[in-house]
From TrEMBL:
Gene Ontology biological process: defense response to bacterium; innate immune response-activating signaling pathway; plant-type hypersensitive response
Domain called NB-ARC: residue spans: 19-98
Organism: Panicum virgatum
Pfam families: LRR_14, NB-ARC, WHD_DRP
Domain Disease resistance protein winged helix: 190-259
Domain Disease resistance R13L4/SHOC-2-like LRR: 304-665
GO molecular function: ADP binding
Protein name: NB-ARC domain-containing protein
C-alpha cells in the first residue's frame, strides 16, 4: 500500500515537472526575438521566481522585468532591489483629510492635533491611512473615538511598516463592524487572491447564507445586501474593480490575509489550496463552508457542509455525488468544466439549496425536472451553459429571486407565476406572449431580454409592442438590457414607470426611444445604445441626463452629423463618452460641458476638413478640464492627401501636449 502511495506521489511530481517545462518552453518561444516589459506582482519566495526566471528569454533587446514583493530577503536575492518610500506628510494629509472631510481646510480645528498623531503612526503607508480614515469617516463628530483609535494603533508603522503593525490597524476596522458585516467580510475569504468578485454573485450568496436581514419592508433582501456591500466599500475593506458600473470588487492582499486568518480561527471558511499553505482540518465536522482551490476533492467526511465553491475546474473529475450533503445551501460551480457531465439529477435531493450556479461551466445536458423540488431555491444561474430549455417545473419555484440563463435557452410558459423574481436574464423573447408575461413580474429590478425569431425563423412584429407595454408596469426596474438578433427593435411607446432606471443598454433600435426623458430618469448613470440613425436632438437629450457617467452611443452605419453644439451645462457628470461610427468633433461640446470627462472616444471624417466643413480649431481639447484618455478614429484616409492627415494629427497632438493633464492620445484608421 505504501509503495502504491509513493508511486502515485512521484507520478504526480513527475507530471508537475513536465507541465512546468512545457509552460517554460511556451513562454520562451513566445518571447523569442521580442522586446518585452513584464510586471510580476507579489512574489512570496524564491522557488516561483526560479521557474519564472527560466522562462524569460535573454535576447539582448533591452527588455524590462519588474517584480514586487513584501519580503525584503526575496527582493535582495532577485536583485536590483528598490524599497518603496512612504508617502510624504503632505500627501498623507491630502489622503487622510480628503477621505473624511473632503479636504484639509474643512477639518474642524479640534481634530488637527489627534489627526497629526494618527498620521505619524500610519507612517505614510497608504493602506493604513485609507483604512484608518475610512474607520473615522462615520465618527467625525466624536473626538473621544478619534483619541481611542489613535491610542489603539500603536507606533509600529512609523518606525517599521511591518505586517503585525498593519494587521493591528486592520483589526481595528474589523472589530468596529456590526456583527452582520463581520460575517459578510469573512465570507470574502472564500475567493482566491486577486480574484475579481462579481457584486451580484457575492450578494446573492450572502442572502443564501442568511447573512442579510430585512430591516425595512420597503426594501428587498438584495437592496439590503447592496447596502452591506456599499458599507464595506465605504470603509475601504473592499475595493472597486471597475469604475463605470461598480459590478466587481476585489480585496486587498493584506485584508485578505487577515480575514483568511480569522476565518480559520473561527472555522468560518475552510480553504484548500494547491500547495501546503492550507490543509483540511483533522475533523470534517467543523467544515461548513468549503473553498476548493486545488485539484482533488477532500477525502474527509463533512456532515455539516452547507456551502461549496470550486475555483479549480480540474476538481470536477474527482467530485463525488453531492447528494450526500443534505444541508447544502450554496453550490457554486461557476467556471467549472461540466461539458462531460450529462446528469445533474442529484440536485433534486438538495432540499435546502438556496443558491445554484452553473454559470460559464459549459454544461450541455438537461436541467433535471427534479429542480422543481427545491422550494427554498432563491438563485439559479445558468448563463454560459448549453442547456436548450428549462423544465416546466421551474415555474413552481415561488421563492426564486434571481434567474439567469443563456440567450439560446428557451423558457417554459408560466413565467408570470415567478412573482418573487427580482432579476431575470437572459430571456429569449420570440413571441409577444412571453413579452407580455414579463409585465406580471412586478418585483423585477434587473431585466435582460434577447429579442429573436421563433424556432421557424419568423419574427413576431408584436414583440416590441408587448415588451414596451410590460416595461410600463415594472415600477422597480433599475437595469434594463435589450439584445436583438439581426433585428432593429422599435421600442417606441409610452413608458412612465422607469424613474428608478440606473442602467440602460439597447443592442439595436430604430431610434432613441422618446421615453428616455431627463425629467424622469434622474438616476440613469449608464447608457449603452446603438441606433439605426442618430438625430441632433438625441445628443441634446442624453446631455441633459443629470446622473449620466458612462455613455456609449453607436449607429448601425457610419453617420456624420451637421455642425451643432450642445448646451454649456450638458453631460455634467459624464466620465466616459464613446461615439462609435458617428463623426463627432470636440467643438460640439462648448466650455462648461463635460466638466468631469476623463475618457473620450470619437471619430472624424477627414474629408470634412478637406471640404472646409470643419477646421482644425474644432479639434480643441483644452476646454475639457478632466481629460485623461483620448482615442480618435480617422475615417476616410484614402479620400484625402497625407497632408490633411498629418495636419489633423499634429493639431490633436498639440492639444494633448498643451492640456494640463497631458492625456494619452491614440489613433485608429477607421470607426
Amino acid at each position: 500500500m505504501l509503495y502504491e502511495l509513493d508511486k502515485e506521489k512521484y507520478a504526480n511530481i513527475h507530471s508537475t515537472m513536465l507541465e512546468e517545462k512545457h509552460l517554460i518552453d511556451l513562454v520562451r518561444e513566445f518571447l523569442q526575438n521580442k522586446r518585452y516589459f513584464i510586471v510580476i506582482d507579489d512574489i512570496w519566495d524564491m522557488k516561483p521566481w526560479g521557474i519564472l526566471r527560466c522562462s524569460l528569454h535573454e535576447n539582448g533587446l533591452k527588455s524590462i522585468i519588474i517584480t514586487t514583493t513584501r519580503i525584503l530577503d526575496v527582493a535582495e536575492q532577485i536583485g536590483g532591489c528598490y524599497r518603496m518610500k512612504p508617502l510624504t506628510h503632505e500627501s498623507s494629509k491630502k489622503l487622510f483629510y480628503g477621505r473624511i472631510f473632503g479636504s484639509e481646510d474643512k477639518c474642524p480645528g479640534q481634530y488637527f492635533e489627534v489627526s497629526e498623531k494618527i498620521l505619524k503612526k500610519c507612517g505614510g503607508v497608504p493602506l493604513a491611512i485609507i483604512t484608518t480614515s475610512s474607520l473615522l469617516a462615520n465618527k467625525s463628530e466624536n473626538i473621544k473615538v478619534w483619541n481611542d483609535v489613535c491610542g489603539s494603533i500603536g507606533s509600529g508603522l512609523a518606525s517599521n511598516p511591518s505586517m503585525d503593525s498593519m494587521r493591528k490597524i486592520l483589526l481595528l476596522s474589523y472589530y468596529d463592524l456590526p456583527s452582520h458585516l463581520k460575517a459578510c467580510l469573512l465570507y470574502l475569504s472564500i475567493f482566491p487572491e486577486d480574484y475579481e468578485i462579481e457584486k451580484y454573485r457575492l450578494i446573492l450568496r450572502w442572502i443564501a447564507e442568511d447573512f442579510v436581514h430585512r430591516e425595512n419592508e420597503s426594501q428587498s433582501l438584495f437592496e439590503h445586501g447592496e447596502s452591506y456591500f456599499n458599507e464595506l466599500l465605504n470603509r475601504s475593506l473592499i475595493q472597486i474593480a471597475d469604475r463605470d458600473t461598480i459590478s466587481f470588487c476585489r480585496v486587498h492582499d493584506m485584508v485578505l490575509e487577515l480575514i483568511c486568518s480569522l476565518s480559520r480561527e473561527e472555522s468560518f471558511v475552510t480553504t484548500v489550496l494547491g500547495d501546503s499553505r492550507q490543509c483540511m482540518p483533522s475533523s470534517g465536522s467543523t467544515v461548513r463552508r468549503l473553498s476548493l482551490q486545488n485539484t482533488t476533492w477532500p477525502k474527509t467526511e463533512m456532515p455539516k457542509l452547507r456551502s461549496v465553491a470550486i475555483f479549480s475546474p480540474a476538481i470536477i473529475n474527482t467530485m463525488p455525488s453531492l447528494s450526500i450533503y443534505h444541508l447544502l445551501r450554496v453550490l457554486d460551480l461557476q467556471d467549472c468544466n461540466l461539458r462531460e457531465r450529462r446528469n445533474l439529477r442529484f440536485v433534486g435531493n438538495l432540499f435546502h439549496l438556496r443558491y445554484l450556479s452553473l454559470a460559464r461551466a459549459g454544461y450541455a445536458g438537461e436541467l433535471p425536472v427534479e429542480v422543481g423540488k427545491l422550494q427554498f431555491l432563491q438563485s439559479l444561474l445558468l448563463h454560459g451553459t448549453e442547456i436548450e430549455e428549462l423544465p416546466s417545473s421551474i415555474v413552481g419555484l415561488t421563492q426564486l429571486m434571481f434567474l439567469c440563463v443563456d440567450r439560446r435557452t428557451s423558457l417554459p410558459n408560466g413565467l408570470k407565476y415567478l412573482t418573487s423574481l427580482e432579476m431575470l436574464g437572459i430571456v429569449r423573447v420570440d413571441s409577444a406572449c412571453i413579452a407580455e408575461e414579463l409585465g406580471h413580474l412586478m418585483q423585477l429590478r434587473l431585466l435582460l431580454v434577447n429579442l429573436t425569431t421563433d424556432k421557424e425563423g419568423r419574427w413576431d412584429e408584436n414583440i416590441c409592442t408587448a415588451l414596451v407595454g410590460s416595461l410600463g408596469k415594472l415600477h422597480k426596474i433599475q437595469t434594463l438590457i435589450v439584445l436583438s438578433d439581426d433585428v432593429a427593435a422599435n421600442l417606441e411607446g409610452s413608458v412612465e414607470s422607469v424613474g428608478n432606471l440606473s442602467t440602460l443598454s439597447i443592442d439595436r433600435t430604430t431610434s432613441l426611444p422618446t421615453w428616455i426623458r431627463p425629467a424622469i430618469l434622474l438616476l440613469l448613470s449608464y447608457v449603452d445604445i446603438t441606433v439605426v440613425q442618430v438625430r441632433r436632438e438625441d445628443i441634446q437629450v442624453l446631455g441633459r441626463l443629470q446622473a449620466l457617467r458612462y455613455l456609449y452611443l453607436g449607429v448601425g452605419n457610419k453617420q456624420v452629423l451637421e455642425r451643432f453644439m450642445v448646451r454649456p451645462d450638458a453631460f455634467p457628470c459624464a466620465i466616459t463618452c464613446i461615439f462609435s461610427k458617428l463623426a463627432m468633433v470636440p467643438s460640439t461640446f462648448p466650455p462648461g460641458a463635460m466638466p468631469r470627462l476623463e475618457k473620450f472616444i470619437f471619430g472624424i471624417q477627414l474629408e470634412d476638413f478637406l471640404r472646409g466643413e470643419f477646421t482644425t480649431d474644432d479639434l480643441a481639447l483644452g476646454h475639457l478640464p478632466s481629460l485623461q484618455d483620448v482615442q480618435v478614429y480617422l475615417s476616410g484616409r484614402w479620400k484625402v492627401s497625407e497632408e490633411v492627415v498629418t495636419k489633423v494629427k499634429e493639431k490633436l497632438r498639440h492639444e494633448a501636449d498643451g492640456h494640463p493633464n497631458h492625456p494619452s492620445l491614440r489613433y485608429d484608421d477607421d470607426f
